[in-house]
Design brief:
By secondary structure, the chain is of the alpha/beta class. Helix content is about 25%, strand content about 15%. The two termini are about 15 Å apart.
Length: about 625
């Protein structure tokens, strides 16, 4: 409820003439009037001296005094809950623009910076100024009557209300976040998309406003400006799109495009490593806390030796959540294993695909046969978690090679339907950004733990571990208070870099010695966590028997047909048309509303601020 602050209707401003007393019939301790009556001559002298001012006052006798000031509820709450946080506000005054600026007081210069207090705009048209100020000062300013102080909030394009006709935002638990977009925008970290580039000047990315950097790093010659392939635009749309009917997982997030792929969907592994290095060097400047890699190398590797694995670990140890697609090389006769970087790295979040089968109920979902799963060559189970990845609809450039190669998949002029773990990963990347918007001090380990801890059971039909611990439930993960740490046992082998580089490194030799000698070396990772919502009934994630692991060092025969390349992770052989309904129908909405695990918007709402005294 809004609250009015300042003087009442019978009060006015202090002035040099009248002092600070109340208006009306009360006597004033004024230098002219003194404390008592004076003689007639003195009175006449004063009357003559003040004839003009009194006449002017007489003309304004019918004008009501300024009303008490108004503070909007958002600023009122911020003044109480986060008093030292800088907020942007607009101050309107019934007495004119100068009065509005005087209420702010100390800022007589324009300063559009967001990291300091200052005047950011002056608008005589509506007698107002825009300011950046500490929230606690709002109440002080409001003691001046006649002001209206409101939040200088984001304005969206008409018709850009967040919406999606697709089923996956509901099934994955990201839809409840959208109602909080205005509140969390300032706190939402940037998501880096390492892919084929982004076609940014479109409604999905606020006409390019949220693609804050566009960096081309590919060394391959067959690469168009922007996104000649379409894969990166699709991935970015799932992670952070905001177009009507096509909203993504974190539609308020800024995005950075790192183009490492050519127009055929191929990248050199060395260029992907260069992208990781760019992110590391620029993560603080652009607030990059999440990165998505919907690609994998073509050379099987041990994570202890692979340079791409080392690169993503550097990011992880630098407080960046790394989300990676598991790959689309799954088999129908059993686990394919996950032998390729960067999905084979035990620290990162590797994401498998789920077929929603036209329902929000996870017990009707299953992992498609092409979604890779199983052990890495170093014995780690992958993926850790899964998300919708079949028959996804996303944005693509009008002339992208992906669209031209799959005309039957086109559903609108610049949207198409695709399947693959490539499009499951950005759901999780967006979910990670949403969690960090609410838990900005969390580490990547905590984000990974919260996502796994609240994953939903998925039937596996004999494909043990195909969905990891289960399907992502983003909104439930965002309200976890004490997440488990899946990387706890690994973290004791993380040591300072001997070269002096700030980010630590993984001591692979020490880990290998311990893991081979002790089958229970990783038991600490799961000891004190309640995994009540996850699919532990079918995946004994905590009971990996390392004595039974087939330790496999990559040989020349494994890599004989491989080269220094990485490929996108979309399912090339997937049929164009779905067999079921993958849009959110009224029946599907009703089913989701009846699901206590999905119908939880109240859990995400910030607590109401206490009333001002």
């Amino acid at each position: 409820m809004s609250r009015e602050t300042g003087g009442t209707g019978g009060q006015g401003r202090s002035s040099a003439l009248w002092g600070t007393g109340n208006r009306g019939g009360d006597s004033r301790a004024n230098a002219l009037w003194g404390k008592g009556g004076r003689g007639f001559a003195a009175f006449m002298l004063v009357l003559v001296a003040t004839a003009v001012p009194l006449a002017g006052a007489g003309e304004n006798q019918g004008k009501p005094p300024p009303a008490a000031s108004y503070i909007d509820p958002y600023l009122e709450g911020m003044a109480i809950t986060e008093p030292n946080k800088l907020v942007k506000a607009i101050i309107q005054s019934s007495e004119g623009v100068n009065d509005a600026q005087n209420a702010f007081g100390h800022a007589d210069r324009m300063d559009s910076s967001l990291d300091r207090e200052g005047l950011t705009g002056s608008y005589k048209f509506i007698n107002s100024v825009a300011v950046t100020v500490k929230a606690k000062k709002i109440s002080t300013m409001a003691k001046t009557p006649g002001l209206t102080i409101t939040h200088d909030s984001k304005v969206e394009l008409s018709g850009s209300v967040l919406s999606s006709k697709q089923l996956w935002p509901t099934a994955s638990g990201v839809r409840p976040f959208w109602s909080e977009e205005q509140i969390t925008t300032a706190n939402t970290p940037t998501i880096a998309i390492v892919d084929s580039g982004i076609d940014k000047n479109r409604a999905d990315f606020d006409m390019g406003a949220r693609v804050i950097r566009d960096v081309t790093l590919t060394s391959l010659p067959n690469n168009s400006a922007g996104d000649g392939r379409g894969h990166g635009t699709f991935v970015a749309g799932i992670a952070a799109g905001s177009a009507p009917d096509y909203a993504g997982s974190a539609p308020q997030a800024n995005v950075i495009s790192l183009d490492v792929m050519d127009d055929s969907g191929m990248a050199r592994t060395s260029d992907v490593i260069a992208a990781a290095e760019w992110i590391s060097d620029n993560r603080t400047e652009y607030n990059i806390r999440v990165v998505n890699f919907s690609l994998h190398s073509t050379t099987p590797s041990n994570f202890t030796k692979d340079p791409l694995d080392k690169a993503v670990e550097k990011l992880w140890f630098s407080n960046v959540v790394v989300v990676v697609a598991a790959g689309n090389y799954g088999r129908t006769d059993g686990p394919s294993g996950v032998p390729y970087a960067p999905g084979n790295d035990p620290f990162v979040i590797t994401v498998g695909a789920i077929d929603l089968e036209g329902s929000t109920n996870p017990r009707k979902h299953e992992a498609p046969s092409w979604s890779a799963y199983g052990s890495t060559l170093d014995g780690f189970r992958k993926p850790e978690i899964s998300a919708a990845g079949r028959y996804m609809i996303g944005p693509v450039p009008a002339n992208g090679t992906l669209k031209l190669a799959k005309p039957d998949n086109v559903v609108a002029p610049t949207y198409m339907r695709l399947s693959g773990t490539s499009f499951a990963a950005p759901i999780v990347a967006g979910a990670a950004a949403q969690i960090l918007a609410r838990k900005p001090n969390w580490t990547p380990d905590q984000v990974k733990g919260a996502l796994m801890q609240r994953a939903r059971f998925v039937r596996e039909e004999g494909l043990t571990g195909a969905a990891g611990v289960g399907e992502v439930n983003a909104s439930r993960s965002a309200v976890v208070t004490m997440p488990g740490n899946p990387n706890l046992a690994l973290n004791r082998f993380v040591v300072p870099d001997a070269t002096g580089v700030k980010a630590p490194v993984f001591d692979a030799a020490s880990w290998s010695d311990v893991a081979k000698a002790n089958a229970s070396w990783d038991s600490a990772s799961w000891s004190d966590v309640t995994w009540s919502d996850a699919s532990w009934s079918s995946v004994t994630w905590s009971d990996v028997t390392w004595s039974d692991v087939t330790w496999h060092d990559v040989t020349w025969s494994d890599a004989l047909a491989a080269a220094d390349v990485s490929f996108e992770d979309n399912a090339e052989g997937e049929v164009a048309a779905p067999t079921g309904d993958y849009v959110l129908t009224p029946e599907g909405e009703a089913a989701a509303a009846a699901d206590p695990d999905l119908d939880i918007p109240a859990l995400l709402e910030p607590p109401a601020p206490p009333a001002l005294p």
